[in-house]
Design goal:
Blueprint: E1 4-5, E2 8-9, H1 20-29, E3 31-35, E4 38-44, E5 52-56, H2 64-81, E6 89-95, H3 104-117
Parallel strand pairs: 5-6
Antiparallel strand pairs: 1-2, 3-4, 4-6
Length: 130
């Protein structure tokens, strides 16, 4: 199973969007939803490879400490629920300024709500954190 190392969930290099062109393609050609503290951009991929994640935190979020915390929160929400995605997809999560006031459970709840609205979750699966 991709993304697991000795029973742990991981977020390896093959599961991340790494180049600006990849982010631009998802934002230009994919879907977009805005809810609460997150913006979700997604693009379904043709490959059977793993889903990939990219995160964006602008300087509007705050200083480096706040931006790093926002990135950690978004990556962790993805990491915990990566195998609940229905198919291979490229995701770009963008933090909004309100993420500074949120705890992890709040960010996770918004993330799952966005995935449900975008129909990206496997059907008939109980999702933890609903």
């Amino acid at each position: 199973m991709p993304g697991t190392v000795s029973g742990r969930l991981t977020l390896g290099r093959d599961q991340r969007l790494l180049h600006g062109g990849q982010f631009a393609r998802v934002k230009a050609s994919g879907g977009r939803l805005v809810r609460g503290c997150l913006i979700l951009n997604w693009l379904q991929t043709e490959s059977d490879g793993p889903a990939r994640l990219g995160v964006i935190t602008s300087k509007r979020i705050g200083n480096a400490v706040k931006r790093n915390r926002a990135r950690r929160l978004m990556r962790e929400a993805y990491r915990l629920h990566q195998f609940e995605l229905a198919h291979s997809v490229d995701l770009v999560l963008v933090a909004r300024q309100s993420i500074n006031e949120k705890e992890f459970v709040d960010v996770e709840r918004v993330y799952l709500k966005l995935l449900r609205e975008a129909n990206l979750l496997k059907p008939d699966e109980t999702v933890i954190g609903q």
